[in-house]
Design goal:
Blueprint (H helix, E strand, L loop, with lengths): L6 H9 L2 E2 L4 H4 L3 E3 L2 E9 L5 E9 L6 E7 L8 E7 L5 E3 L4 E3 L3 E4 L2 H5 L8 E3 L6 H11 L2 E2 L10
Length: 157
């Protein structure tokens, strides 16, 4: 994996077309796992990239959740988190800007935060687009190039 992805490379990965498998609805239903519910789903991109959707939600706080899209780089075991749709369960600070907020928020991988020495997806912005994990997953699908399986005419999740 490259030591650093540019903002352009990140944007290409996020917008790469990703077709969901026919059974994706049952495969994104979370299951209990040590104090939270979790589920993962691997998806192939149209240009050959591999991606992983990770869903997590606390069993104790319904606002403590994440819907994550990671890229799985070739010849690496470390996923690169492209974006993360988080619940309203904690305060977030963008360390470079010095801006703090407490709200639902969307993390995005950025070249700048990688150069700063932070995790790739440290930067976040508040959002009012969702209020629960299902809504966060719908936003992830809408923002990140996901397509329904062939022949499926329903709405994404």
């Amino acid at each position: 994996m490259p030591a650093l992805l540019t903002d352009n490379q990140i944007a290409v990965l996020i917008t790469e077309a990703k077709t969901l498998p026919p059974d994706y609805r049952s495969r994104v239903l979370t299951k209990p796992k040590r104090g939270h519910r979790e589920r993962e789903l691997d998806v192939d991109g149209a240009q050959g990239s591999r991606f992983r959707i990770i869903l997590r939600q606390s069993l104790f706080n319904s606002l403590d959740f994440s819907a994550i899209l990671s890229w799985l780089p070739p010849q690496s075991t470390t996923p690169f988190r492209l974006c993360r749709f988080n619940g309203k369960s904690h305060e977030h600070t963008n360390s470079i800007e010095g801006k703090t907020f407490y709200d639902f928020h969307i993390h995005r991988a950025t070249e700048r935060y990688q150069e700063f020495g932070s995790r790739e997806d440290t930067f976040a912005e508040p959002t009012s687009r969702y209020q629960d994990l299902a809504g966060a997953l719908r936003c992830l699908f809408a923002d990140c190039g996901f397509q329904l399986p062939p022949g499926d005419q329903s709405e994404l999740f």
